[in-house]
Amino acid sequence: MYSGSVDGESHETAQRKIPPASSMLWVRNLRRYIGSGAGLGSEALMELETKRILLDIFKEKQQRSAEAATVPSFYKKKPEEGSISHRVQRLAKYRFLKKQSDILLNADDLDAMWVCLRENCVIDDATGAEKMNYEDFCHIASVCTEQIGPKCRRFFSPSNFMKFEKDESGRIAILPFYLYVMRTVSLTQARIDMSELDEDSDGFLQPHEMEAYIRGLIPNLAQLCDMPAQFVQMYCRIAAHKFFFFCDPQRRGKACIKKVLLSNCLQELMELHQESEEEVTDTEQAENWFSLTSAQRICDMFLALDKDMNGTLSKQELREYADGTLTEIFIERVFDEHVRRGKSGGGNAREMDFESFLDFVLALENKDTPEGLTYLFRCLDLQGRGYLTTADIHSLFRDVHQKWIEGGNYELCIEDVRDEIWDMVKPTDPLRMALSDLLSCKQGGTVASMLIDVRGFWAHDNRENLLQEEEGPEDE
Length: 476
Hints:
Elements: H1 2-17, H2 25-35, H3 42-66, H4 84-102, H5 107-119, E1 122-123, E2 130-132, H6 134-147, H7 158-162, E3 172-173, H8 174-197, E4 204-205, H9 207-217, H10 232-247, E5 255-256, H11 257-262, H12 264-270, H13 282-287, H14 292-305, H15 315-318, H16 328-338, H17 354-365, H18 370-380, E6 387-388, H19 390-406, H20 414-425, E7 433-434, H21 435-440, H22 444-452, H23 454-461, H24 463-475
């Protein structure tokens, strides 16, 4: 009893002598040091940030549940540069793209597949074409899998066999199938390369990212591999601009990767893969926007127009484009609709920079495309109403008529040309001609040329003679 009371008393005395943890200076300092994160290692910091992220996600889900009746959020803030989330995202993207690249067929694999196809196909007695039926198709799939590996197996699915045209015996030609495999591999590789350059992983490429992609292709393109080093940057700028003209119609400054892959621009660029420049005619080089000849032509054209050498074009300088055949009203409308005013303000400060000049050239050289015709229609729409009237057609063609007469041509009636244009388009509303009417009539590019360029009207007026000249050599 006595000893027990002593022990209890001494225990209570000890508790009174030990101060609470919060009152001890070293404990407070340690807690403050750990709370700031300075005393933790990288693993502990990662653990704390992981807990914080999970807690934020939990709170966000709770908030969404509480606000279930409201409109859901459509925007998610991107992780900050250098944060754990950002690094995890980049690592996941890198591993995914590497995995996709590893299962892709390389050049040697494609060559081996072509050899397998030719060695195991049958020759059509009637046409001499190399073909295979579904049994041959399955056999070739087994051979390719043994020689190349399982990564080629996905091309030999029943659904792929059914995609190709079959003869009366149920056979398909091996060449279209092989070209399909090559194009699939090429587009997949292009998507991987573009995704690697997509810094924020949003599925869109900004101009500098698109230029970087083109710069990486140059050494592998037969017609561009010998490009002078000092011209590479300018070439990439010109080449990338066509992608944005056709794949970024809203001019947001970014092009969707999927749209780029499916565009004719990428196919046109890849044509430079096939042959050396010496084997391509001058006409083919001029028609391909991505050829070195075309890029140099654009630069020379801009420098020739820039008389004062200030890096921009005034209205007076742009009037000399195409030997001065464009009308005055069209040049004015181009500056009104597609050229931004300079920083200093005022009418004299508005001049066309190189990017706007590229848009201008692309629109005039692609008048039959929806993108080119949309650019030109904004200039033709004098009142900004979204449609043209007969009065607008009369006003636009009046300048063409003046240049036509100054060129020593025969007299013509503006009203007759106006009626002819209306008959060519056949607008849905007989009193209004909309952009949709120009697109649906399939002659929108011709109509635009007739209204802005005296040379375009001359080509339309002499279309029968020009057609006979083109057909003459073939008949001979």
